[in-house]
Design a protein that fits this description.
By secondary structure, the chain is α/β, with parallel strands linked by helices. 45% of the residues lie in helices and 18% in strands. The chain contains 7 helices and 5 strands; from the N terminus they run αβαβαβαβαβαα. It has a 5-stranded parallel beta sheet, with helices on both faces. β1, α2 and β2 form a beta-alpha-beta unit. It is globular. Bound molecules: coenzyme A.
């Protein structure tokens, strides 16, 4: 009985990404996943190699503002190996979204690598909602920079932050 209780009260997943910036696709996935886990840690990767538009602090802040309607979510920044951070957070699951077949090879490779490093952490995939299957953070930044409306791809705080950033 105790084991049963522990199993179902320690159901923590980690959802990693660069989130430069967070999109409606990420939010939809988190909304659905929030019913499946006790807690989800949104792990915002420092990821300087991706040369992010927003600083780590700004990406965390935008994610926090955009996810404050979901109770069982925490947003944290991290640098270094995801598996190490996942273990520090006591997460047993790495949660990833699959948008299209093209995501599969990269995701499969990453899941395989992470599993080699930490055998007791499993990667779980959720498929994207069809409405958001073609959104990517890079595309949002590109079209916003060219003056297009991105309100169907990102939440309001991100729209405002993009306008401000692009006006600077
Ligand atoms: N809806 C909309 N867009 C989505 C999405 C969804 N559900 N899921 C992913 N995306 C988009 C992202 O916006 C991102 O777009 P971009 O490339 O235009 O910025 C793109 O898909 C790729 O996202 P993701 O797969 O999350 O990659 P990432 O670069 O943001 O994050 C890490 C990769 C951070 C998870 C990975 O590099 C990592 O774990 N780093 C830590 C170091 C480490 O442990 N490395 C070893 C890994 S094996």
């Amino acid at each position: 009985m105790l084991q049963f209780v522990q199993m179902y009260t320690n159901n923590i997943a980690i959802y990693p990404g660069t989130f430069d910036p967070i999109t409606l696709g990420h939010i939809d996935l988190l909304q659905r996943a929030s019913d499946l886990f006790d807690k989800i840690v949104v792990a915002v990767a420092d990821n300087q190699q991706k040369n992010p538009l927003f600083s780590l602090e700004q990406r965390i802040e935008l994610a926090s503002q955009s996810l404050n309607h979901i109770d069982n979510i925490e947003i944290k920044g991290f640098a270094g190996l995801l598996t190490v951070f996942a273990q520090q957070q006591q997460a047993k699951v790495i949660l990833r979204g699959l948008r299209a077949v093209s995501d599969f090879e990269y995701e499969f490779q990453m899941a395989w690598m992470n599993r080699r490093m930490k055998r007791d952490i499993e990667t779980v995939f959720l498929t994207s909602n069809a409405d958001y299957a073609y959104i990517s953070s890079s595309m949002v930044k590109e079209i916003a920079a060219l003056g297009a409306d991105v309100s169907d791809s990102v939440p309001l705080p991100v729209q405002q932050a993009l306008l401000k950033k692009l006006a600077d």
